[in-house]
Amino acid sequence: MKLTTLEEHIIHAQNKFPGATGDLSQLLRDIALAAKIISREVNKAGITNILGLDGASNVHGESVKKLDLFANEQLQSALGRSNITCMVISEENEGVVRLSDESGKYIVYMDPLDGSSNIDISATIGSIFSIYIRPESKEPLREVDALQPGTKQVAAGYVLYGSSTVMAYTTGMGVQLFTLDPSIGEFILSEEDVRIPETGNIYSTDEGSYIYWDEALKKYVKYCQAFDTETNRPYKARYIGCMAADVHRTLLEGGIFMYPDSSKYPNGKLRLMYECNPLSYIIEQAGGVSTNGSSRIMEIQPKEIHECTPIYIGSKKNVEKLEEFFLA
Ligand code: AHM
Ligand code: MG
Fold first, then answer.
1. Which ligand minimizes its atom distance to the CA of 259?
2. Residue 21 C-alpha to ligand 1 middle, in angstroms?
3. 115-125 pLDDT tens trace
4. Cα 283 from Cα 167, distance rounded (Å)
5. How far is the CA of 271 from the centre of ligand 1 (A)?
6. What mean pLDDT do residues 276-284 have?
7. What pTM does this model have?
8. Is the CB of 204 under 6 A from ligand 1?
9. Is 257 helix (H, G, I), strand (E, B) or coil?
10. In this predicted model, what pLDDT tens digit does every residue of 248-272 receive, in sequence order?
């Protein structure tokens, strides 16, 4: 069987566009390089903890923090290599980060280590990225230039550091999935043009927060738990606590992932620009749906780089069913 590496795949895709400059391809390769370095560190994190606890104090909490910052630094330094990116907005930085070359064509949003509370328990964590073109002739660039709706993304994706390291990305022509072969240090194509099942029997949310929810959502979750052979209910509940991982499972197995607004989080908890938009782009490109309950996530006009939104994302039929409960 012929193996296709991420590099080959990106170059092949780029060749389909005769006018392409190769900049976006380079950007994706830079992100993949940082992801490999992060993957290596993530795999060592447990042992670093043990070694740290052996000789020093308070290293456990420290090392968790360090891995977040390490991922942030690796991604930013990878993006700074090629003078293609002018600005980075990261969950780990309060303001925008201007890279050395302000003329760079792309603005990149990222959550360097999503689900970071999972580091402590050796469970799956991920990196999420979302890429926009900078508006033309805006010098100097302003923060407001980065406030573009998700429909303007030119590429997005995530890397998951789980039982294997996988990377999914889209440039608007379907979703491509790669698996890192650590022995050769290459991401190998594992699935081309991934499609999400039209319906699925898994719902994914923090059900412990039930008491904070609106009535409509409570009723929908009761619907998921009711017995009905025709619709394969009751559904299973799954919640990893790392959105990228929960959405990845939803992409492959179908179903719905929900992080709602609630009396505890009136605007939801997840971030529009570097969690919800990129994962919505992936899911939509695979044939799924993503909404905040009343509008398509990718059509929300952002007002603030770190703003939150409720999100309901997954298989078309599951999300449509939930919307019926919201409209009732
Ligand atoms: P993080 O990016 O700071 O790690 O937080 C985001 C994470 C999501 O990945 C996950 O879906 C959610 O927070 C879990 O939140 P909760 O603990 O409220 O269920
Ligand atoms: Mg996150």
1. 1
2. 37
3. 988 988 889 99
4. 14
5. 10
6. 98
7. 0.94
8. no
9. strand
10. 999 999 999 999 999 999 999 999 9
**How is residue 120 written in tokens?**
């402590």
How far apart CA 180 and CA 201 sit, in angstroms, is 29
Query: Cβ of 173: how many Cβ atoms within 10 Å?
Result: 10
Q: How many CB atoms lie within 10 A of CB 89?
A: 22
Most confident listed range (17-31, 59-73, 214-228): 214-228
Are 92 and 271 within 8 A, CB to CB? Answer: no
Mind listing the pLDDT tens digit for each residue in 25-82? 999 999 999 999 999 999 887 666 554 443 333 333 444 447 888 999 999 999 998 8
Count of other CB atoms within 10 angstroms of residue 249: 20
Q: Ligand 1 within 6 A of 242 CB?
A: yes
DSSP secondary structure, 61-128, as one string: HHHHHHHHHHHHHHHHHHHHTTT-EEEEEETT-SS-EE-S-TT-SEEEEEEEEETGGGGGGT--EEEE
Rg (CA), the chain: 20
User: Which residue's alpha carbon is nearest to atom 11 within ligand 1?
Assistant: 243
Pairing of strands 256-259, 202-204: parallel
CB neighbour burial string for 257-284, b if at least 16 within 10 angstroms, e if fewer: bbbbbbeeeeebbbbbbbbbbbbbbbbb
CA of 242 to the centre of ligand 1 (A): 6
Q: What letter represents residue 87's amino acid?
A: M
